[in-house]
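Before the break, one more example. Copy the sequence into your notebook; we will annotate it together after we see the structure.
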Amino acid sequence: MEKAAQLPGGLLFAREPGHSGRVSRKSEPMSDAPASEAFDVRPAGPFSRWERMVAGRYLRSKRREGGVAMIGVIAYVGIALAVAVLIIVMSVMNGFRAELLSRILGFNGHVFVTAAPASGLDTSSLAGRLARIPGVVQAAPVIEGQVMAVGDGQVSGAIVRGISRADLMATRLVSDNVSPGGLEGWGQGEYGGDRVLVGERLAASLGLRPGDPITLISPTGAATAFGDTPQRKTFIVSGLFSVGMSEYDQSFLYMPIEQAGLFFGREGAPDFIELRLAEPDRAAAVKAQAAALAGPAASVSDWTERNAAFWGALKVERNVMRLILMMLVVIAAANIISGLIMLVKNKGRDIAILRTMGAGQGAILRIFFMAGAAVGVAGALTGLLLGVVFCTYIGPIQQAVEWVTGARVFASDVYYLSRIPARIDWAEVVLILGWSLAAAFLATLPPAWRASRLDPVEALRYE
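Here is what the structure looks like once it is written out:
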């Protein structure tokens, strides 16, 4: 004997005793209906249209359920802000790393070969051999020394870097950023001439402009019978360079290597040979080849070793900041739990009716899961949009804030860079988005599971 059953939408169908749930077309019409009106009725699959419809209705709470709506709004705003802040902070830290890395590796070499003073190693021929290593684009002998720089009544410590004109022109980060002034006459004349290239911030602290004299005092000069004698000499400022990193612009000046050797008493004996690579990440491989060419009389190091403490601290700071901000996303997603718990409590009668109409525990679980997940997805996507837009226009935003407040929000003398950098790493953005969605989905499961386990009889007992 067939029994009549009813779907949640009010649709009647015939069911045989012990039938699994699927209703097939009958050879005889049901009741008085013609056979042409008979049809198949199949159970709705997971995340079907009616489940999505019910979840959407629950998200649009009525006025008497305003507390649920308010908690939903708070959860949405919290997730959006947490995701946006996480994207912005990690993009700025990525920008800091990229900017510092490009300036440090553009200003300095990538592999350094230092010969012992008494080794008798011919650095000129060694530089030629090192330049032929695959991947090496420049092998420059360098003389460095600390001096006291005297300008227009001002005194400052500085670092002199002696280098040939050809090698200076190949250092594009410096040679392409000389303004005002220029490189005319620099490196030309007897012992390379008397012109020097000064960092822009160093020149500003000494009150110097191109064409002005600058006096350099070195505590170690030519060797005499009584020891090293201090060296003092006046040079002409050829031009000013700015590489965008205040530490270099404030401390360095360039001098022809011949003049530097004469000034420091190290003629023909450079302090080290600086190798620049087409791919700085191959420094370790090139270091091994350079050590084999230089022999035991020289020590070889690369940029990762010289800046190991700095890059290690930067990496630890970046990882800790990511972990902290990810916890903020979890805290923001936790608001979904409280909102769904209140929603389940308010909708107890509706849940019981749905269960008695044939909706299973899985359907109830999916309905409330979609209601909570919708808040998390909307918040995560909004945060993604806010974070990407902020990072894209971070320069104009910085200028607007400084114009409104009248104060610098980014001190270049503290952070080494002249502007706030931001570099969006899309792989990291995908990771952040995935983490925020996972946190939101997990937060919806406990209240959704509680709703699915609700007993219809108990829910309707006091209605």
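The chain has three domains: 1-43, 49-100+311-460, 121-296. The chain is about 50% helix and 20% strand. Try to locate both features in your own notes.
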